[in-house]
Amino acid sequence: GGGDEVKLYVGNLDYATDEARLREEFGRFGTVTDVFLPTERGTNRPRGFGFVTLATRPSAEEAIRKMDQAQLDGRTLRVNESKPRGQGPADRMRGFGPGGQGGFNTSGREEVKLYVGNLSFDTPEESVRRLFEQYGAVTDCFLPTDRENGRVRGFAFVTMPSGDAEQACVKVNGQELDGRVLRVNEAQPKGAAGGGGGPGGPRGGPPG
Known about the structure:
Layout: E1 6-11, H1 19-26, E2 32-36, E3 49-54, H2 57-67, E4 71-72, E5 75-76, E6 78-81, E7 111-117, H3 125-133, E8 140-142, E9 156-161, H4 162-172, E10 176-177, E11 180-181, E12 183-186
Antiparallel strand pairs: 1-3, 1-6, 2-3, 4-5, 7-9, 7-12, 8-9, 10-11
């Protein structure tokens, strides 16, 4: 019986890649029932990722096998199954990652700012942005520099939609970039009490 459509997330798209192009590429694996390319509010620029829905699971799995890490319009695609977000109990969000980094308090917030530490001084902003764009839209990427000598300080801030940020935090934390193992966690706004973070702040929390 029906209802076995599978929605795929397609990341790291070139801005020139449009819906027709995706429909054509993924149509080689089966019937494409839907293609969606989110655009930035205000500018209507594509956000560098999209969703392609295939009619059957076998065709979707074939598409993931063939298209993940494939080249399209000069970019290396990321293709995986798009998991529906925000379904089920909210406690899925809590305590992911090693030692449970306190989880994400994403309620009521569209965007999350991530702190990226242990960067090589040779890593340009573009590399950081590219790395995070594999997991969703990057709305802002900032490498603070030293006031004295103008050199980068070895860390960055990356702002992403909350759902993408959660995934990026898990995936990028511990990855290597330019020979350094990155540390990623949610950047805490300075002096903010944290929406209901309560005593003890956002980290740690009770075990379990």
